[in-house]
């Protein structure tokens, strides 16, 4: 279930023209050091007297996106542009930006569009963590903010703690076997139809509960747990990890 905070974040970030990845006290943000975002290049347009070209001089840019939509992410398939050939249409990329773009830019794609995907991820995290930290971590746990791990590592390292905590969380769904980690967890941004169940060997119910308040609840996953199922709770985060 999509979290309403994320829809709000998309609207706010679009209105703000998706500014830089967010400031960081230690200067990890590439733009904090004065770097400017490169503009995405577009197809060459012939002048009035130029004959019509049968093919565009440069690869066409993607179709305009709806407000709040993310830039297209680079896929794992297909040949990638070598890192030493990755250059923006204008300006230059910083060292961190180039590291992020390594093995991410498909041949023929504007690297600025790929970079924008990571920058938008950083922008969303910056917005969400100010509104509600647990929601920001939950969005990483559920995958509603894709590419968070790589974007944070390369473009906004001030949010690394969010990614580290998310690695130990659970999204809604059924979890079993080695994926279960004993401990105390709190629900992040649950709906008013949140329910959970913890089972042991042989399907024995160890704990269960429901909540219609929309407020965070705490549960304990014991060592004997075999299956943990959650519905409408959005995500569960390890207690004591917030900071």
Class inferred from helices and paired strands = alpha+beta
Output mean pLDDT. Answer: 77
* Major beta sheet summary: 6 strands, antiparallel
Specify the overall morphology: elongated
H and E order: HHHHHHEEEEEE
Structure summary, number of beta strands = 6
Low-confidence stretches: 14-76
N-to-C CA distance: 26 Å
Our count of helices gives 6
| Strand residue content | 15-25%
Rg is: 22 Å
Helix % is 25-40%
Task: Identify the notable features of this structure and list them briefly.
alpha+beta, 243 residues, 6-stranded antiparallel beta sheet
Walk me through this protein's architecture.
The chain is an alpha+beta fold and 243 residues long. Helix content is 26%, strand content 17%. It is built from six helices and six strands, in the order ααααααββββββ. Strands 1, 2, 3, 4, 5 and 6 form a six-stranded antiparallel sheet that branches. β3 and β4 form a beta hairpin. α1 (4-15) packs across α3 (111-131). It is elongated. Mean pLDDT is 77; it is low at 14-76.
In short:
The chain has 243 residues and is an alpha+beta fold.
Topology:
Blueprint: H1 4-15, H2 95-101, H3 111-131, H4 133-142, H5 148-154, H6 160-166, E1 170-176, E2 183-188, E3 194-199, E4 205-211, E5 218-221, E6 227-238
Antiparallel strand pairs: 1-6, 2-5, 2-6, 3-4, 3-6
Helix pairs in contact: 1-3, 2-5, 3-4, 3-5, 4-6
């Amino acid at each position: 279930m999509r979290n309403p905070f994320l829809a709000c974040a998309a609207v706010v970030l679009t209105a703000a023209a998706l500014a830089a990845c967010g400031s960081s006290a230690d200067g990890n943000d590439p733009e904090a050091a004065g770097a400017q975002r490169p503009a995405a290049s577009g197809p060459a347009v012939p002048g009035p007297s130029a004959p019509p070209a049968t093919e565009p001089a440069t690869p066409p840019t993607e179709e305009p996106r709806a407000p709040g939509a993310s830039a297209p992410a680079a896929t794992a398939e297909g040949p990638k542009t070598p890192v030493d050939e990755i250059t923006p249409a204008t300006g230059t990329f910083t060292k961190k930006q180039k590291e992020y773009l390594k093995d991410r830019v498909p041949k023929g794609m504007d690297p600025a569009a790929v970079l924008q995907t990571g920058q938008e991820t950083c922008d969303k995290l910056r917005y969400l963590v100010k509104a509600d930290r647990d929601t920001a971590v939950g969005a990483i746990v559920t995958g509603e903010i894709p590419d968070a791990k790589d974007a944070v590592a390369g473009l906004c390292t001030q949010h690394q703690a969010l990614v580290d905590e998310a690695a130990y969380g659970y999204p809604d769904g059924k979890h079993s076997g080695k994926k279960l980690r004993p401990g105390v967890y709190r629900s992040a941004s649950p709906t008013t139809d949140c329910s959970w169940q913890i089972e042991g060997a042989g399907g024995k119910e160890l704990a269960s509960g429901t909540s219609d308040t929309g407020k965070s609840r705490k549960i304990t996953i014991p060592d004997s747990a075999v299956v943990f199922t959650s519905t409408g709770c959005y995500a569960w985060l390890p207690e004591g990890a917030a900071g």
